[in-house]
Amino acid sequence: MPKQCFGKSHVPLSPAVRAGDFVYVSGQVPVGSDGLVMKGGIAEQTEQVLQNVKAALALAGCSMDDVVKTTVWLEDARDFGTFNTVYAKHFPNDPPARTTVESRLMIDIKIEVEAVAYRPV
Fold it and tell me: If we measure between CA atoms, which residue out of 120, 29, 112 comes closest to residue 68?
């Protein structure tokens, strides 16, 4: 089965790509529906990022329940506890495998999250 791209972006990437039974979600940042980076702390930005992950998954017919792996970049490791509290609300049962690292990010944001989902076609 060839890959299938979902959604559009103002940068050269697809928000979600299906390859067989897997859906890969590009790194999502705390951008609101207006296209602007949202203000706020790690809790607000984490919530927005996870809503954006959910929206990208929906483009490919998936939900948060289908996520098997996430990778998280935090601008400041001291935000881990607050981030983890918000994240846990989005994955209350059988959370996916996860890697979390501290990293300088490409724009002035506190968090970025990418996800891999498994949903047989």
Answer: 120
